Amino acid sequence: MADTTTVTVNIRRRPSISDPQGATVARALRDLGHNVSDVRIDKTIELQVPPGDPDSIRAAVTEMCEKLLANPVMEDFEIVINP
Amino acid sequence: MADTTTVTVNIRRRPSISDPQGATVARALRDLGHNVSDVRIDKTIELQVPPGDPDSIRAAVTEMCEKLLANPVMEDFEIVINP
Known about the structure:
With 83 residues, chain A is of the alpha+beta class. Chain A is built from two helices and three strands.
C-alpha cells in the first residue's frame, strides 16, 4: 500500500462569475492569430493525505475545501480520490 | 454538432520545480489540524475552439501552450480534447 493517497481537487469558478485572467489570455491568443471563443482558467490542487477509507478522506477534504481551498461564494469544487 | 469544441489543458509544474503556493497552503491546512504531507497547485485551462479534426486542434493548442499558456522551462502540459 502506498504511503499516501493522492486526492485531486478541481476548483472552478461558477459559470456566472467572470474570469478576467481567462479573458486576457483569450485576447492574447487572438492577437497571436488563434481562433478561440472563450478561455477559463481554474485551479487543480493535488493533496497527499494518509491512506484511509474513501468516505473519511472525502469528508476531510470537503472540510479543507470549505474552510480554506475554495471560495464558497464564487467557486465550486470536485474531489477525486485516486485509487 | 456543437458550435465549439472544449479543449482542456492541464499545466503542471515539473516535479523538480518547487511550488511555494502549495507549500503555504500545506502549512495552513496543518495549522487547521489536517494531516497533509504535500500540496501542489496547478492550472487547468479550458478553451473553446471551432470544431475540426482532432489532429489539427491538438496542433493548434500545442502551439498556444508553447507560445503563451505554459512556461516551457518550468511546466509540462497535457491536452485533452473533449468529444
